[in-house]
Amino acid sequence: MVDLFLDRVLVKNNWDQDQLNTEREITGILENRILMLFFACAECKKCQDFLPVLNDFFKRLKDPAFIEYPKLLALIYVSLDQSEEQQDRFLKELNKRILFVAFEDPYRKELQAMFKVTDVPTVMVLRPDGSVLSPNAVQDICRYGLDCFKDWQESAELIERSFMLNEEYDNLNLRSATDPVRRLKYKTEDNKRKKRWWKVWERGKEGYEEEEEEEEEGDHGRWRRR
């Protein structure tokens, strides 16, 4: 699914409309996520009616004010508006955490043709691998609300990081509060042992050298006597 937007430009629906155009940025925001492609236009009455429902749905899954662990979900608005002014008007009503394809980007039309979108509003739901979970989830979102995401999550076999936290925590080698003191003590004792060993080794080395010198002198004496 990330491949769908590599080498493309996505825009954040924030005040500055920051652009995401590097592989690292695109991967970071889309990888291992369920992706919703929202095809709509400002002049469509059904799109206007669906907009607050979608905003509430997305907000309750992504906004930390409503949920402790935001879900692995991304929403991209693909405008089918006839003018940039219409698109901007619609974006003002959309959640500020969504992404969108710029109006001047021809990739908007390519996405529409790729997924054969003929009606609006359409919410195309994709698995992280890019395969289609739902060709149009508008009715399901209106009817079932947040339960939709649970179904998508199970179908996509998506593993959330929050679920993995306990497993990672269980594998940690936990230490007590006095551990640093004990480690310092053992380190000090190890250093003392090393110093003692070094002194013994030095003494042994000196004694060995003296013995060698005595043996050499003895050998010289024997050679002289011969």
UniProtKB/TrEMBL annotation:
Compositional bias (Acidic residues): 208-218
Cited InterPro entries: RdCVF, Thioredoxin-like_fold, Thioredoxin-like_sf
Taxonomic lineage of the native organism: Eukaryota, Metazoa, Chordata, Craniata, Vertebrata
Annotated GO biological process: photoreceptor cell maintenance
Coiled coil: none
Gene Ontology CC: mitochondrion
Residue span, Thioredoxin-like fold domain: 32-132
Designated name of the protein: Nucleoredoxin like 1
Region (Disordered): 205-226
A Pfam family the protein falls into: Thioredoxin_8
Organism whose genome encodes this protein: Labrus bergylta
